[in-house]
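Q: what sequence does this backbone want?
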């Protein structure tokens, strides 16, 4: 059974929509400037750019990158947190037909260096003004300061390192074949996987998501979801700017900053992961703040499963529907979302977006009957080009006829909406970020006092946290706190275990395989 693209699909002429998309994501600033050059496009605390200033800054920064040797097909690694300079570097890279490798500056040195080694970027650019962590990485790599803007446009300082030996990939004229962004998601083996997303992948999601949400020039979008994450990149950043909205950039989630922005900065759209909504409610309650969001039109949750109790609490406080959706990096990311005109009381992830098909496939490869649970397969203009320099993994994930195997278990409800019922992989989603147990186990097992470890996810309200079980060598004196500190030096904050439990022996089958279901019973 192949599900249709959902009941509202007839409202979209998908071939016409695809034909009308800008050929490159770098076209977005110039198109917006041509419509209304003086409207504010980006706001970052005290710094802001109009649409014309953004377009001019992109042109100038593209020229600077070109002078540093960036050519079409090169990778440009952008180490940043949400900021104006990050957005400018993203568009400037795309303008040269290079690939934007958007990396979260909060990754550890080991994680960032592994991505750098795999992608072999021509240039690494660090947003040193906007991110203390980017500044630390820049110092570690002996980065040089980029020249200041000559156009008197303050985008924030950045530094760079170059690699004269980097090679350029072939360039494709067609927007559905040319890679625009390379987003790394760590594989179950602990090795980084670079997801190649084309210009059409990103423009399709930017257009569909902003159209379905009726985003327009009067909207101010609070952009705190990391632009280094595909949800923040395609839906929030590109979708909002393509629709003509103003992006209010926030480098990190801080409940008081969100509260202030909603109350005083005309924010009309707030998209976040469930944990952000949960922490905002906790902040309001703890500090006795009254809710004030006079212009908020809607709020969205995505990136990890939404809890029904949290949804109900958020809606009672916000006074608007908390919409939900589902996607993954490999699908740019959106597969489905709840619709503005059809708010839901449940935590369904809504209708499959126009232009996208889904299937539900049993373990034996047979189609699931309607309403039965199967692995969700997705096909459409949102499916990635593949994994960079990993054709075997690409072939295992995307079929020859274009179906993306998500690894998630789902079913189609009677009303045509999609429900995600579980993950066939052992993926932990912490605050919207993917954490693979093998990666954390690898770090723990490297400690001299650890015999073996097993990592699972533990549900907490509105989120999931990392729980580790370890078996120690005889006579070892290392404490759980020391093991968490050990992980802290080697993993990004969201991957660190919230708790480490020491067991005399990990439960195991006769083969020696650790029985994680037994560990889950202990939580």
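A:
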């Amino acid at each position: 059974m192949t599900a249709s693209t959902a009941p509202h699909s007839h409202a979209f002429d998908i071939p016409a929509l695809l034909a009308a998309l800008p050929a490159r994501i770098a076209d977005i600033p110039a198109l917006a400037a041509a419509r209304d050059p003086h409207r504010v496009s980006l706001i970052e605390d005290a710094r802001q750019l109009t649409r014309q200033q953004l377009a001019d800054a992109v042109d100038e920064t593209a020229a600077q990158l070109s002078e540093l040797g960036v050519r079409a097909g090169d990778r440009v690694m952008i180490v940043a947190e949400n900021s104006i300079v990050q957005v400018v570097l993203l568009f400037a890279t795309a303008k040269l037909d290079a690939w934007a490798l958007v990396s979260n500056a909060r990754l550890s040195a080991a994680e960032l260096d592994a991505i750098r080694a795999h992608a072999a970027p021509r240039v690494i650019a660090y947003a040193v003004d906007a991110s203390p962590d980017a500044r630390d990485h820049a110092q570690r790599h002996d980065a040089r300061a980029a020249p200041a803007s000559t156009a008197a446009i303050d985008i924030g300082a950045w530094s760079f390192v170059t690699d004269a030996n980097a090679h350029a990939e072939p360039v494709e004229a067609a927007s559905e074949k040319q890679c625009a962004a390379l987003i790394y998601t760590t594989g179950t083996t602990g090795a980084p996987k670079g997801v190649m997303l084309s210009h059409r992948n990103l423009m399709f999601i930017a257009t569909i998501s902003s159209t379905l949400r009726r985003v327009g020039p009067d909207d101010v979008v609070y952009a705190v979801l990391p632009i280094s994450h595909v949800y923040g990149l395609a839906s929030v950043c590109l979708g909002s700017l393509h629709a003509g909205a103003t992006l209010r950039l926030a480098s990190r989630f801080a409940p008081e900053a969100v509260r202030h922005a909603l109350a005083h900065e005309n924010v009309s759209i707030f998209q976040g992961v469930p944990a952000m909504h949960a922490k905002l409610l906790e902040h309001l309650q703890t500090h006795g703040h009254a809710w004030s969001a006079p212009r908020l039109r809607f709020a969205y949750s995505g990136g990890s499963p939404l809890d029904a109790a949290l949804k109900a609490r958020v809606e009672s406080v916000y006074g608007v529907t908390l919409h939900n959706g589902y996607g993954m990096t490999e699908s740019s990311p959106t597969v489905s979302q709840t619709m503005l005109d059809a708010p839901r009381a449940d935590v369904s992830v809504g209708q499959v977006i126009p232009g996208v098909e889904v299937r539900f496939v049993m373990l034996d490869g047979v189609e699931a009957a309607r309403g039965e649970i199967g692995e969700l397969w997705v096909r459409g203009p949102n499916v990635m080009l593949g994994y960079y320099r990993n054709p075997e993994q690409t072939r295992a994930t995307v079929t020859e006829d274009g179906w993306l195997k998500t690894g998630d278990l789902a079913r189609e409800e009677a009303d045509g909406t999609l429900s995600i019922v579980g993950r066939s992989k052992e993926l932990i989603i912490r605050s919207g970020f993917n954490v693979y147990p093998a990666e954390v186990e690898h770090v723990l097992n490297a400690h001299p006092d650890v015999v073996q470890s097993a990592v699972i996810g533990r549900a907490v309200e509105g989120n999931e946290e990392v729980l580790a079980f370890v078996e120690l060598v005889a006579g070892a004196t290392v404490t759980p706190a020391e093991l968490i500190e050990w992980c802290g030096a080697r993993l990004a904050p969201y991957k660190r275990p919230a708790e480490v439990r020491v067991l005399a022996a990990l439960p195991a089958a006769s083969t020696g395989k650790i029985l994680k279901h037994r560990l889950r019973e202990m939580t």
